[in-house]
Amino acid sequence: MRDRPNFLVRYRNLLTTGSTVAMGLVLAFGFVAGIVFWGGFNTVLETTNTEAFCISCHSMKDNVYEEYKTSIHYSNRSGVRATCSDCHVPHEWTDKIIRKVEAAKDVWGTLIGRIDTPEKFEAYRLTMAKREWARFRANDSLACRNCHDQGYFNFAQQDHRSAYMHEHMLKQGGFTCIDCHKGIAHNLPETEGLEALTPVELVTEAEDRRSGGNVRSWRSDK
Fold first, then answer.
1. Within 13 Å of residue 118, how many CA atoms lie on the same side as its CB?
2. Do 113 and 145 share a domain, yes or no?
3. Most buried one in 78, 104, 131, 194, CB count within 10 A?
């Protein structure tokens, strides 16, 4: 008894029996394959956005994650948390893919052991922090504004300095959220002049920029 032809042989035979049948089979196969590919791709993409994935390497779990656990973004009275991807991965599809591609160098850094010890991590902390500060400034702290909507701030419940910064400065430009809120989730790197980064200096800088005068900048990430 002759063996039955395998799937590929039968599929080829069907494709050669007639153009209508062949086209239908090609379209059906492509449709199913597309669904499988998209589902798998999206699943992997979303998995890389989870907190569990982010702390799966010990350099993240033993360093920044421990710092993050002491922050208001991890635990607060309302129980609303901001996880790693909320701050470090854009929400829009195109920007998200670009960010994932950029993050490939972080994977490479992990593979070659660039920050695999606390000492190495601290030595590289300022470089990583400046990179994130620059990214936040470039997109006007979009990750912050995805959750914090200035239009719904209750300025009456803020102290005078905070209300001034939020109500006037953000509307008129000059600086953005990250300028005041560096270190909101992770320890600040040790660098000269960082202790001078206070709202008072930022108010001065914003007023200088608005007036067009000489800018008295205290930012350490210029």
1. 5
2. yes
3. 194
